[in-house]
Every structure is written in structure tokens, then in C-alpha cells.
Amino acid sequence: MRDAFLDELSALAREDDRVFLIVGDLGFSVIEDFAAEFPDRFLNVGVAEQTMIGVAAGLAASGYRVFVYSIGNFPTMRCLEQIRNDVCYHERSVTVVAVGAGFSYGPMGYTHHAIEDVAVMRALPRMTVLSPADAVEARVLTRYAAGLEGPCYLRLGKNGEPRLHQAPLDVDEAVGGQVLCEGDDVTVLATGSIASLAVEAADLLRGRGIAARVVSVPVIEPLPESVLDQARGTAGIVTLEEHSARGGLGSAVLETAARMRMTLPVTVMGTDDSALGRHVGTTAYMRAMNGLTVQSVADAAASLARADGPSNLSPGSPRA
Amino acid sequence: MVVIDSQDLARAARVSAVRATHRGKSSHIGSCLSVIDILAVLYSGVARVRPEAPEDPARDIVILSKGHAAAGLYSVLAHSGFFPLEWLADFSLDGSRLGGHVTSTAVPGVELSTGSLGHGLPFGVGLALAAKRTGAPRKVFVVMSDGECDEGTTWESALLAAHHGLDNLVVAVDRNHLQSLADTEQTLRLEPFAEKWSAFGWEVLTVDGHDHDGLRSALDTPRESASGEQRPRVVICETVKGKGVSFMENQVLWHYRSPDDKALATALSELLPGAEDR
């Protein structure tokens, strides 16, 4: 995702001389090409995230469309008030880009686990929150972010995520939510690279006679109602994210469903508070420690599908 | 260009600020009175701003980073013609667009909403950097409090501005030596203050923050970059908190206390009543 983002950003910068990239002394081996091609529209502020956002706001106020790049929680939580006051309340076109969504940096320890960021960013006024599932989505959402008037948070994985889309997407397709698997029994709404688990779970469920519809949801805020419309006619919704079960995609789905007066059952799958800070390991290991596995997603979906009609499936064990 | 006399402007703004904080039952009159001379000098010819075109792309930028001195800034802006004097009448009251901390929304002349300290300088650095990158002859003035220099962003930004040679950036520090609870040196020692800025790579001038001629010559940096080393400038303005009202001067109490009727009457008798009507 990271390479796709920077590649697309370079393309955007060639088309639009307002595109500016600020980094907080991170991006070794990936930002050099941009910096070399656009030296007048690149700035490394050093290890100074709060100043980074303030400077971004000043550049945006001067007419630039600013992308701010760092990893994990550094460009969000470390400088939250700068994002709130200087960017959001002033309605400035600044896109905060965080590489290392969820447990992308799992082995590095919990300082580098970004699993509350979406909740925090979603709470800010006028903020668009984007969470692509693979490099194809990352590319199109980068372009989408560049066209937005106002603040945006773009949450990226790292590199090497499973590719879920075989062909490029156009913006409208991506924003409305992409069906990754067709099925009428139950819906899984997933965001970020963990959507690949939902696809695998759908394969597993198929063997059990359950057809799960898997939808990738790259726009968490404002969540398009069309995403929930995709769940109509199925037994219920499982939401899946590599993020806290409070305040992220699951919450956005519940809030939107309530607003739409939808009565479908929703099972929210996210990280497990009791596990946080106690484990270090690969992304897959960290997901498993948080109860986020192909099996658990399949079980949660099966549980909703079974409740909807006669079935002899065993009960699932969702970890909400 | 504003051509109002800075002394007239400061005198009128002091009266308006005291009245506004009295009516609004709001805090920070001491902070307003210490910074008003700095603002009056900036808005009477040093900063290239035009009240009739507050969003002129060619304007200079003035940022009041110590946003709690809102009544001071609003008074200076109103007396400079950026918006009607009548707006001051409901300062910080229900429905007012003039909040108790500096708010830019729908207020002509205000460049950044402030009130959380340490936001103005990073924003100013961004604007100054943008001007450099685009070749615009813009100057950026950031007015800060001395207590604000406790904030880490001050020094992050000080490094950044010097590193990039932003000689189009001028910081004025309202050095009144008092912060929220006590003297700055008792709270979190700033001295040797000038040396700190100097060590960070800034050109440092220290002036009497109530002497308009001294302020003007210190704040009015050349618009063209000098040859040789390019440095941002900080002007340490030695000021008196509560300046102009004897019982408020150097009293930390007036960081928070709002003038009651009696205090207002006494203050106005000292501040040349009638100045607001000029």
C-alpha cells in the first residue's frame, strides 16, 4: 500500500502543482523519489509531529494541498489538537497519512500498534477517514483524498498485503464499498488489509453451505449508506477491522444502521482490550491473539446466518 | 494600508478591551493590556494589511498565538477598521462572533483561531515557508506570550524556521514575566531567554514592548532577503502585564479577574476616557 500511495501521489504531483508532501522524518527508502522529483514541494520537518501539522496547516492556508506522512500513531495522536484546531476547525485541505494500520508493525511493540486511530479521527468534525484494503484501493483513495476539500485521514497498511482486486478501481466504485465475495446469507463488512481474512472466511463458509457476502469498506467516515444497503436481504452483518471494537468501522455501521432504521443484527469484531499490550509478533499472530482469525470470522458469520433459518451448524464464538 | 497612528490605536484599544472584558465578565485583561502596543504597531503600518481587503492574497500575516488576549486583538482590529466597533459590545456573550479566545470564523482580519498555546508559530512557519517556496514577498508575524514558550512546539518550530532560513518570519514575544499562576522564572525558568533563541539560530532583539518607535524599528524587517545568512527574527518585547491601569500592572490576579463596575470606572479614568470614540 505504501508504494502504491507514493506512486500515485507522485502522479498527482505531476498533474497538480499544489500537491505537497511533508514527512516527520520517516519514509526511508520510499519517499526519496518524490523528494528528488519535487524538491520544492517536499519537506522533512524532523521528528516534530505537532509542528508538522501546524506547518501543514500553514501551507494549506497558502494554497497547497498537503499530505503529511508518518507511521503508526505519530501523525494522529501525538498531534491530535493540531489536527483538530488548525486543520479540521479551519476546514483546511490536509490529508494525514499513517502507514502501519493495526498490527502492520506487530513485532515492534504496542507503541507502533495503531488500533485506536480511526475512533479518534472519526470524532473530529469534517474529517474523512479512509482505510484501503490493498494496494489497488490505496491508489484510488489517494486520488480521492487529493480531490477532497477539507481534512482527511488515510490509514495505510505497509507493503505486501494480499491483493483483493485484480483490476484498477475507479473512485466511485471504491468509495461505495466493493463486493469481494457474492453471497446472500450473511454480510461481512471489512476495512483495511484484514478484509483478506473475510475473503478466506467466505471460502470456509462456502464449504459449510453458507454464502457470505464480503464487502470491503474503504470509506469509514462518512460511511456511505450504500455500504449498508449491500447487507439488505442477508441475515445480518459482521464487521471486521484491525482496530478497537469501539469507535471504528463497527461503530460507524451501528450508528448508520440506527439512523437508517435497519433492524439487522450486527456483530462487531475488533481488537480485544484484555490482549492489548501483552503480545508482540507478526500481524497474523497479533490478529490471532485478539481473536481475529479466519475461523472466528466464519463462526461469527455462521452464527448470524444460522439464527436466520434452520441449520445444524455449531455455534460460533465471535470476539466482539 | 492602515495609516492610523499607533498611539491613538493603542489608547483606544485599551479602553475597548477593558470595556469588553467588563461586559463579557471575561478573563485576561492583563494579558490584553501587555500586548496591545505590539499589536497596535503591527497594525499601523508594519504589517502590510488592508482592512478593506482582509483576504488580499498579497497581505502580510499577523497571528496572535496567545489567543487569550482576544479582547486586545479584536479591539485593535475594530479600531483599525476590519469590522464595526459595535461588534465589541457583545464580546464573548451569547451569539457573538467574537469568542473569548481568538476565533477566525467570520471575523475579518483574524488569520488563525488560537487559545491553545503553541499553535501559532508552527502555522506561521508553514506560511513563511510557503511564501519562500513560491517567491511571494509576504512577511509573517507571530505574537506569542512568554509563558507560551513552555510549549515544546515553540522550540520545534524555532529549529525548523532557523534551519530553513525564514527571514520573512518575525516572532514578537510579549515578555511580561507573568504566566497563569506566578512569575515565569518561578514557574519554569526561561532565562537566559535571548540566548536560547540565539542558540537556536535566530536574530534576537530586545525592546521596550510599550515604546512604539522601538517596536516599529525592531518589527519592521526588510522585505528583501539580505545576502549572507538568512535568519528568522525574534523580538523580545519587555512588557508590563496590565500596562496602563495602575492596579492591574504586574498583578497575576488580572490574568483571570474580570473588571467589575468599580474597577472599570477606575481603569477608564486612567486610560483617558473618550479615546474609544476617536
Which descriptors would you attach to this protein?
heterodimer; A: alpha/beta; Rossmann fold; 7-stranded mixed beta sheet; 5-stranded mixed beta sheet; 12 helices; disordered C terminus; B: 278 residues; alpha/beta; 5-stranded parallel beta sheet
- Given as residue ranges, the uncertain stretches of chain A (5+ residues, pLDDT < 50) are 310-320
Q: How many strands, which pairing sense, and closed or not: the largest β-sheet of chain B?
A: 5 strands, parallel
Name given to the CATH architecture of chain B: 3-Layer(aba) Sandwich
Provide mean pLDDT of chain B, rounded.
95
Report the radius of gyration of chain B as a whole number of Å: 17 Å
Shape of chain B: globular
- What structural class do helix, strand and pairing data of chain A support? alpha/beta
What percent of residues of chain B adopt helix (DSSP H or I)? 25-40%
Helix content of chain A: 25-40%
The CATH class assignment of chain B is Alpha Beta
Number of helices of chain B: 10
What is the number of beta strands of chain B?
5
Distance between the termini of chain B: 19 Å
Count the E strands of chain A: 12
Question: Helix and strand succession of chain B?
Answer: HHEHHEHEHHEHEHH
Portion of residues in beta strands of chain A equals 15-25%
> Which fold name fills CATH's third level, the topology of chain B?
Rossmann fold
Radius of gyration of chain A: 19 Å
Name the assembly state. heterodimer
Low-confidence stretches of chain B: none
What are the secondary-structure elements of chain A, in order, as H or E?
Answer: HEHEHEHEHEHEHEEHEEHEHEHH
InterPro entries (chain A): PDH/Transketolase, THDP-binding, Transketo_C/PFOR_II, Transketolase-like_Pyr-bd, Transketolase_C
Organism (chain A): Actinotalea lenta
Domain Transketolase-like pyrimidine-binding (chain A): 1-163
Protein name (chain A): Transketolase C-terminal domain-containing protein
